[in-house]
Amino acid sequence: MGFMRWDFVVLVLVLLILSVAAEFCYGGRTSSFVRTANLSLDMPVDSDVFLVPPGYNAPQQVHITQGDHVGKGVIVSWVTPDEPGSNTVIYWAENNTTLKKQDDGIVLTYNYFNYTSGYIHHCTIKGLEFDTKYYYEVGIGNTTRQFWFITPPEVGPDVPYTFGLIGDLGQTYDSNRTLTHYELNPAKGKTVLFVGDLSYADDYPFHDNIRWDTWGRFTERNVAYQPWIWTAGNHELDFDPEIGESIPFKPYENRYHVPYEASYSTSPFWYSIKRASA
Ligand SMILES: *[C@@H]1O[C@H](CO)[C@@H](O)[C@H](O)[C@H]1NC(C)=O
Ligand SMILES: *[C@@H]1O[C@H](CO)[C@@H](O)[C@H](O)[C@H]1NC(C)=O
Ligand SMILES: *[C@@H]1O[C@H](CO)[C@@H](O)[C@H](O)[C@H]1NC(C)=O
Ligand SMILES: *[C@@H]1O[C@H](CO)[C@@H](O)[C@H](O)[C@H]1NC(C)=O
Ligand SMILES: *[C@@H]1O[C@H](CO)[C@@H](O)[C@H](O)[C@H]1NC(C)=O
Ligand SMILES: *[C@@H]1O[C@H](CO)[C@@H](O)[C@H](O)[C@H]1NC(C)=O
């Protein structure tokens, strides 16, 4: 008691050295972007980014993610609003247009408080070639829509590949700016690692799940053409026993499927993939 403790002295010294180091350690500025003081507002439901595609039962909210462990598979997901329609995805390699293949997926719906979802389709395509552009078509029968994606190169330690990193996106005017910023980046990101917090529908009264649909339509312009690798954040919980919703992650889990079984995981909230050099 009453003595100066040596570990305390060492701690103070370390802090001193660190703070001096911090003075001289300036990481530089990578962007001229400065965040404004005010939070940007959510885009209204009738915004251009939320437009419903024309045509009876036209597929909307089209999104893809990796569908196997190494990048030769893709999970294609979409929503049809009027009737279940077809679960089939037709796809072909760009340099082999005569050979069209097709796979069938599943369709599901869910209820959340007084909301009933559209028909949510998920179809896993496997056995693709690496480094190849594929076209794909959904909505067969009534209104078809066509998109494309490029598979990654084979997994290896030094394979060049560019990932984007987006999280906390939401659907404000700033969310739209963030997505545009990513799209216009000269580095041309090929896959997004999405670090959680997708739609922010949970900010609305009764977690208005219509805001999950608007988010799906907003992001389609990118995620229909390149995979976004999903992780769930706290805003995906949608846990609200007071309105009878006590199954956590219900909207997220129904809408965003991930290839968790390919890494022998038992839960979609915990999985791994390999892609190019990552
Ligand atoms: C932020 O909002 C306040 C109150 O609405 C407004 O007076 C101010 O001009 C806004 N600032 C910016 C940078 O938009
Ligand atoms: C390309 O098409 C030919 C037949 O036209 C087929 O034998 C070959 O396996 C196809 N390759 C791919 C990558 O689909
Ligand atoms: C759900 O309930 C809320 C609150 O009563 C109401 O504002 C909303 O219009 C309802 N939505 C549907 C689809 O019935
Ligand atoms: C298609 O093109 C890719 C390169 O984009 C190539 O790797 C692949 O072998 C080609 N497949 C066929 C069947 O020609
Ligand atoms: C949509 O397609 C289904 C199955 O082919 C068909 O039974 C139905 O009549 C079509 N609906 C319209 C409005 O074309
Ligand atoms: C969103 O961004 C796109 C592309 O920059 C633009 O065309 C569109 O008008 C924007 N919409 C809103 C509601 O900000």
TrEMBL record:
Needed co-factor(s): Fe cation; Zn(2+)
Entry-linked InterPro entries: Calcineurin-like_PHP, Metallo-depent_PP-like, PAPs-like, PAPs_N, Purple_acid_Pase-like_N
Any GO MF annotation of the entry: metal ion binding
The keyword Metal-binding is annotated on this UniProt entry: yes
Record bears the keyword Chloroplast: no
Keywords: Glycoprotein, Hydrolase, Iron, Metal-binding, Signal, Zinc
Reaction(s) catalysed by this chain's protein: a phosphate monoester + H2O = an alcohol + phosphate
Signal sequence, renumbered to the chain: 1-22
Annotated Calcineurin-like phosphoesterase domain residues: 162-273
Purple acid phosphatase N-terminal domain ranges (all copies): 59-151
Enzyme Commission number(s) of this protein: 3.1.3.2
Top enzyme class: hydrolase
Short name of any one Pfam family annotated for the protein: Pur_ac_phosph_N
Family that this chain belongs to: Belongs to the metallophosphoesterase superfamily. Purple acid phosphatase family.
PANTHER family: ACID PHOSPHATASE RELATED, FE(3+)-ZN(2+) PURPLE ACID PHOSPHATASE 12
Protein name according to UniProt: Purple acid phosphatase
Lineage of source species: Eukaryota, Viridiplantae, Streptophyta, Embryophyta, Tracheophyta
